[in-house]
Write a structure and sequence with these properties.
about 240 residues; alpha/beta; Rossmann fold; Arc Repressor Mutant, subunit A; 5-stranded parallel β-sheet; 5-stranded antiparallel β-sheet; elongated
């Protein structure tokens, strides 16, 4: 990674001060931005903070509660951030428990920093593939074709501006996850997050006008008050094999 660019923001949850110090220094030297939490209470607060982290490295054994409980609560609170769990517990039962509560990968202590970095890179690459996700989805009475950038309703084309479509595709690819205003400004409008604008709201309302629903509990694009928006209720249209002639 380039030392002049801000890399992905990682949340490291580790109570061993010697290990956490060495990991923070190592990851920062590799270009990552790292925030450290040393107990479960702080970890829960940080994990749900918005804008969210790109990845969470979570120790399974914490002084006030275990990492499994922290992760379970975070997932219940809607946190979809990829999680790499660190633990000295290497048996199958504990690994299965981690996956059951929503971890994405598992690394048993002691480990080599090179392996940790490889696991982080793999998880971030997988998450980045969301940016290029294609396919056809039904949502809010619309059928959205991400591959061909087409939107139809009842078979008829829906006319959207370029920014309206970009916003719809952005929220669709992050379906079920909150997108903050700062993230939308950065990723859709290509504006600094410090810019304040109501343009996002106007574009969301324009999309709601062509979708099903007449109130907040009916709209596919839901407001997360004071934070941003998230899209719910999207279903992927499964491709059907064409019959040979």
């Amino acid at each position: 990674m380039s030392g002049t660019e801000q890399g992905p923001h990682l949340l490291l949850v580790e109570d061993d001060s010697e290990l956490s110090t060495s990991l923070v220094l190592y990851l920062e030297s590799e270009g990552y931005e790292v925030t450290l939490a040393e107990n479960g209470t702080d970890a829960e607060e940080e994990a749900t903070r918005l804008p969210g982290y790109d990845l969470i490295i979570l120790d399974a054994k914490l002084p006030d509660q275990n990492g499994f409980e922290v992760l379970r609560q975070a997932r219940e609170d809607g946190v979809r951030t990829p999680v790499l769990m660190l633990t000295g517990l290497g048996d199958h039962e504990h690994k299965m428990r981690g996956f059951q509560v929503g971890t994405d990968d598992y690394l048993t202590k002691p480990f080599e920093t090179e392996e940790l970095l490889a696991r982080i890179d793999a998880l971030l690459r997988r998450e980045a593939q969301v940016e290029e996700e294609g396919g056809v989805f039904n949502v809010g009475g619309l059928q959205v074709d991400l591959d061909n950038e087409e939107v139809v309703r009842n078979g008829d084309p829906v006319q959207l501006t370029d920014l309206e479509y970009k916003l719809l595709a952005y929220l669709l690819r992050r379906r079920g996850r909150t997108a903050t205003r700062e993230q939308i400004l950065r990723d859709v409008w290509d504006l600094p997050s410090a810019v304040e604008t109501r343009t996002i709201d106007r574009h969301v309302n324009a999309l709601r006008d062509v979708m099903d629903g007449n109130s907040e509990d009916e709209w596919a694009i839901q407001s997360v008050y004071g934070i941003g928006y998230k899209l719910e209720g999207a279903d992927r249209v499964e491709e059907t094999a064409t019959e040979a002639v």
